[in-house]
Amino acid sequence: MKDLYLEKNMNPQVAILYATVRDTYIRLRNLVESTEEKELSFKGSENNENSIGQLLQHLAVVDLHWVYRLKGEEVPLH
């Protein structure tokens, strides 16, 4: 298991959250970078499941919401 890199110029709690998100992003990117677009958009044999692309988009939106929450700002609706 590796340690997370913590930014020195951040509040320690924010630095841990940021490092976790960054590490997860890098690991996910490495896992899907060679994935074909067809695979990213595949929604199951009956076309009724979430695709890899949809799940990645969901993770990105959740991370963005956390950024706004940590900044104490409202999440923009548009």
Automatic annotation (TrEMBL):
Pfam families found in the cross-reference section: DinB_2
Organism: Bacillus toyonensis
UniProt cross-references to Gene3D superfamilies, sorted A to Z: dinb family like domain
Superkingdom of origin: Bacteria
Name used for this protein in its record: DinB-like domain-containing protein
Residue ranges annotated for the DinB-like domain, each copy included: 25-76
